[in-house]
Write a structure and sequence with these properties.
Elements lengths: L1 H6 L7 H34 L5 H12 L7 H9 L3 H7 L2
Helix pairs in contact: 2-3, 4-5
Pfam families: Dimer_Tnp_hAT
InterPro entries: HATC_C_dom (IPR008906), IFN-induced_PKR_regulator (IPR052958), RNaseH-like_sf (IPR012337)
Protein name: Zinc finger MYM-type protein 1-like isoform X2
């Protein structure tokens, strides 16, 4: 409907309706992330109970919510190994 509204030139005829449509088109995208975050928070809290600090809980939430981001484990190991000589000996073959 938004595309038809723009293609037919109704933007200048109904400017307020165009604003409402613009807001309506963006709403489903902005409400999906909080719902996912709350469900992940429930999973994390039920598994670990209340034995963690707020910082650790926030870090675990970020990891849990952003599972669609690919992580190259070899790159992570090399990054940690390069931080000290002890880690280099322990993490590299």
């Amino acid at each position: 409907m938004f595309d038809i509204f723009i293609k037919t030139g109704l933007v200048s005829v109904f400017p307020n309706l165009f604003i409402v449509l613009k807001i309506g088109v963006t709403l489903p995208i902005s409400s999906a992330s909080p719902e996912r975050s709350f469900s992940k928070l429930k999973i994390v809290k039920s598994r670990l109970r209340s034995t963690m600090t707020q910082n650790r809980l926030e870090d675990l939430m970020i990891i849990s919510c952003e599972t669609d981001i690919g992580v190259d484990t070899e790159k992570v190991i090399d990054n940690f190994a390069s931080r000290s000589l002890v880690l280099t000996k322990a993490l590299t073959y």
